[in-house]
Amino acid sequence: MSLKVGLPRALFYHTYYPLWQAFYAALGVETVVSPETNKGILNKGIKCVVDETCLPVKVFFGHVAELCEAGADYLFVPRLVSVEKKAYICPKFMGLPDMLKASRIQQPPLIAPVINFVKVTPLQKILDECAAPFTRNRVKINRAWQKAWQEQKQHEENLRKITPHHDLTILLLGHDYNVYDRYINMDLIKKLQQLGCQVMTAAHIAREERDRQIEKFPRSVFWTYGRNLIGAAYHFMEQPGLKGVIILSSFGCGIDSFIDNFIIRRLTEQKIPHLNVVLDEHTGEGGLNTRLEAFVDIIRWRRDYHQGYVSPHGQYLGSAERNA
């Protein structure tokens, strides 16, 4: 019977799942992915961590518990410190292996390589640790990595394929694990599409373009997700057409607390409609639906009736006199 590696469908999974699934498949290792997030998984995670933990980490622990019950032989939980030079990942990614070891979850051995490109961790060392329970053949390991890297690049290229065909485009800004987890965000993308909106995310914008746009920001941004969001927002501001921005964040996220504020200030200056949605396990779907419908309706109403003085983001823009 072949060994199985468990991949929790949470946090970094939503960004890098093609990479690691393809890597282990090329090594001939079976991967087990936890189901999509649901109420049961969230409740399992809530029981494993303190109340102050943010929603995405609670969900992650629920997915780990689900994989342990499914009988995974190993859990892939890398210690993500940095995936690019001069920028870091959120601290909760860095501490996941330690948090799991301190939890009450009865878990299999962890595959937890340190990924830190600020200190230039040798790629070969990372790959050797990832493959150590299964093979030490570096030729096989490197071939598997090349195939996996191609899968990841193809995945990112596919995400960028978008054909605008709606009158209103909404940029949905947020960490991948909030944007693409349909349970956490209550199927937000589908709701917007049902309202007749074209939905864009930061992944629809090429990494090179986001990096170019971030250079316009007056300060250095040391968080990878923050750089992605600001770069995507700056790019979107330059695009023509009817548009709005929804900023999706988790309650208690320290990075988002100031990154979102920077973006909101800039959007306000440009008079681009925006909506800030903060999620936790108590967020109600009815309230979210009402806010989305009102946000979309008022953007279209301002266009159709030339009511430019009505702000869709709560700021008074000046005189209420109608144009003659």
Kindly describe this structure.
With 324 residues, this protein is an alpha/beta fold. The chain has two domains: 4-158, Rossmann fold; 160-305, Rossmann fold. The protein contains 13 helices and ten strands. It has helices at residues 13-26, 39-46, 55-70, 91-94, 96-102, 123-131, 138-159, 176-179, 188-194, 207-214, 224-237, 254-269, 285-305; strands spanning 4-7, 30-33, 74-76, 79-82, 110-111, 114-116, 168-173, 197-201, 242-250, 274-279. It has a four-stranded parallel beta sheet with strand order 2-1-3-5, sandwiched between helices. Residues 316-324 have low confidence and may be disordered.
Write the layout of secondary structure elements.
Elements: E1 4-7, H1 13-26, E2 30-33, H2 39-46, H3 55-70, E3 74-76, E4 79-82, H4 91-94, H5 96-102, E5 110-111, E6 114-116, H6 123-131, H7 138-159, E7 168-173, H8 176-179, H9 188-194, E8 197-201, H10 207-214, H11 224-237, E9 242-250, H12 254-269, E10 274-279, H13 285-305
Write a brief caption for the model.
With 324 residues, the protein is of the alpha/beta class.
The largest beta-sheet arranges its strands as 2-1-3-5
The ordered H/E elements are EHEHHEEHHEEHHEHHEHHEHEH
What would the average pLDDT be, to the nearest integer? 85
Count of DSSP H/I helices: 13
What structural class is derived from the secondary structure elements?
A: alpha/beta
The oligomeric status of these chains comes to single chain
How many strand elements?
10
| Alpha-carbon Rg, integer | 21 Å
Shape: globular
Largest sheet geometry: 4 strands, parallel
Level-1 CATH class name of the largest domain: Alpha Beta
Unreliable stretches: 316-324
Binned strand content: 5-15%
Distance between the termini: 78 Å
